[in-house]
Amino acid sequence: MSAATLKTYVLVYAALIVLLAATVGIAYIDLGTPNVAIALAIATIKSLLVMIWFMHLKEAEHIDWVFASAGFFFLLVLLGLTFVDFASRP
Amino acid sequence: MHTQTDGSALATNVAPQFDDAEQQARSAVLGMWVFLITEVLLIGTLFATFAVYRYRYAHEFEEASLELDVVLGTINTFVLLTSSFTVALGVYAAKHGKQKAIVANLVITLALGVVFLCVKGIEYYAKFHHHLVPGPEYHFPGTASPVGHQTELFFTFYFLMTGIHALHVIVGMAVLAWVLKLALARRFSPEYHTPVEVGGLYWHFVDIVWIWLFPILYLINRH
């Protein structure tokens, strides 16, 4: 429950900018299929950084975590069932 | 937070359904998270549909993606990440009762929002100029028409997704402008700063949507 300090925000911001540079840089290197996986992994990390520190989930109560997780869960259902449908068509 | 009419007692007003001001503030934050879940599902349907067609027409989508401007896209990602940072600083300032810092950070955030929309406008203008807007004028350079139609689908997604995102940027700026007005009237204190907090949550969500749009639209075929 400890409150974030200014230093925390600066560090999170610096991490976001480094990850932006990384995702652009890696996009220009041909790694084959992992290119997409790496881009999506970096986007996931950036989103989590924003949610945990900028959106204060770090300091939030359990109920806020439950609601944020519910959004993630419903999104997985939406994406998962759509992909299963298209992947399993003859 | 909707009970004040004359605004003189904003900090102390607690609606009858709440035990105290703290519970009222926490409820507002939770309410914003609930709203953001519905927004995630709105945007999520577009991401799901995009992913299906991106794999079905992988080659055409990769060709079409090359027509987007990575430099402008990167600049806009930088601009939005920075604006998220300044909003976070604004909320921090509100929590610590630093009036001038709240105002300064909100002004910078709004200015960055304007920069984002201007860059987006430049990109849209270039697409119109190069006949890359889906419709009767659409023409994809150097390819036969069947490929053209599938690249057209990419640009339909591009305009739909970035357009809905831009709409959210505009709404977010309207919300933050209202928060700025309250900040200028010195309505916020360490005890009461719910509008800064909740407006900030919405702005961060808009930032996260762009964090995903940027790689899937701009970076899918750069190597």
Keywords:
heterodimer; A: 90 residues; mainly alpha; 2 domains; 3 helices; 77% helix; B: 223 residues; Four Helix Bundle (Hemerythrin (Met), subunit A); 74% helix; 0% strand; disordered N terminus
Structural write-up:
The complex is a heterodimer of chains A (90) and B (223). Chain A has 90 residues and is mainly α. Chain A folds into 2 domains: 1-59; 61-90. Chain A is 77% helix and 0% strand. Chain A contains 3 helices and no strands. The longest helix of chain A is centred in the C-terminal third of the chain and has 26 residues, at 62-87. Chain A is flat. With 223 residues, chain B is mainly alpha-helical. Chain B has a single domain (21-218), classed as Four Helix Bundle (Hemerythrin (Met), subunit A), CATH 1.20.120.80. Chain B has helices at 21-56, 58-65, 70-95, 99-129, 145-184, 194-218. The N and C termini of chain B lie far apart (51 Å). Residues 1-11 of chain B have low confidence and may be disordered. The interface between A and B is large, with 46 and 47 residues.
Question: Summed up, what is this model?
Answer:
The complex is a heterodimer of chains A (90) and B (223). With 90 residues, chain A is mostly helical. Chain A contains 3 helices and no strands.
List the helices and strands and how they pair.
The complex is a heterodimer of chains A (90) and B (223).
Chain A: H1 6-27, H2 34-54, H3 62-87
Chain B: H1 21-56, H2 58-65, H3 70-95, H4 99-129, H5 145-184, H6 194-218
